[in-house]
Amino acid sequence: MKKNSILLLAAVTLAVLFSGCGKVPQAELNAAEAAIDSAKIAGADIYLIEDFTALQDSMKMINENIEVQKGKLFKKYNAVKDQLAYVTTTANQLVANTETRKQEVKEEVLNVQNKVSTLLQQNNELLTKAPKGKEGKAALEAIKNDLSLIESSNTEVSNMVSDGDFLPALDKAYAAKDKAMSINTELNNVIEKYNKANKR
User: Fold this and answer.
1) CA 112 to CA 117: how far, in whole Å?
2) Per-residue model confidence (pLDDT) at position 200
3) Letter string b/e over residues 160-179, b meaning 16 or more CB atoms within 10 A of that residue's CB
4) What is the pLDDT of residues 37-70, one digit of tens each?
5) Radius of gyration of the chain (CA)
6) Residues 6+ positions from 156 with CB-CB distance below 8 Å
7) φ, ψ dihedrals at 176, nearest 5°
8) Distances (CA, A) of 78 to 57, 87, 123, 145, 162
């Protein structure tokens, strides 16, 4: 009888001991998921895709680990708690890193826009020096139209920056810059050939 009481007491003690480790750390789980949501709202899934994907992969592994522990007689979530704490900390840092990256992209957009504005000014000046023969007139009108489109595009980029759409704005700014540079090269070549021909 005494032996049975000792065994029962031991079983109860073990049950109490493991019950502390046997519960899913729901509060930590909620905190980690909320931190990941905050990172996504900040735009980490757009501006820091690789880091955000790695974070999601970590969370997926943690959830898989939780399911494994649920199937065990003696559940241990200490490692899971550590992993959740890491995910929460990393996600919070990712929010800050995303804001830094956004600022970097914004500054790059503004730099490209300035280059486009400079090229537009140069191209308009070159238009006045370009030959205006019968064939040249039509070409110059087409270039004027292109320059007008580039100017409109540059304005659209400014609006996108104001709306916080920095990455699409960057793509549009570079497209405008490439077109403006192409026109710049074309005009310079035409003027150079015309000047050389008239020196003979």
Assistant:
1) 9
2) 60
3) bbeeeebbebbebbbebbeb
4) 999 999 999 999 999 999 999 999 999 999 999 8
5) 32
6) 172
7) -65, -40
8) 20, 14, 66, 67, 46
Phi first, then psi: give them for residue 157, nearest 5 degrees.
-60, -45
- Residue found under tokens 């077109």: 179
Query: The pTM is what?
Result: 0.78
End-to-end Cα distance, the chain: 124
Distance CA 86, CA 82 (A): 6
**pLDDT tens, position by position, 19-33:** 445 789 999 999 999
Residues listed for the chain: 200
More confident residue, 136 or 84: 84
158: its two tokens: 């400014």
Tokens of 90: 């990393």
